[in-house]
Amino acid sequence: MWGLPSFSPHRERAFDLAGFLLLSPGLAALIYGLSLAGNHGSFLARPALLWLSVGLWLVAGFVIYAIRKGDTALLDLGLLRHRSFAVTSCLTFLFGIAIYGPLFLLPLYFQWVRDDGALAAGVMLAPQGLGTMLAIALAGRQSDQTGAPA
Length: 150
Fold this sequence. Notes:
Elements (H helix, E strand, L loop, with lengths): L16 H24 L5 H24 L13 H31 L4 H29 L4
């Protein structure tokens, strides 16, 4: 019930080119649409809406394609049926937002509110990146030594 399905790491699979051609431009279009929405100040601005809708259509197409293709797809979305994997993926996503979200907001604060330059903002953010790198390395080493909780 809580475990993941068996996995054979030596299984040869062909690269899923169709999935790659759906997902990669879809994510790029979404990011570009979000950038345009920020520049225009609205998600309803015509350029932003165009790129966001193209990105959503491509990503939705990938999801439908990946579900039909099963475990041979670029990303096996069937793994999300397993509760432990789905919860872990969700928590990892939220952890990423908590850790890396400020890395997107702090440069804006330094440049817009404090009126610092891009170089000064980067220099002030470098210790945060180094600290995160060290903390993740130490946590990984610690979890390797102690193992997962039972």
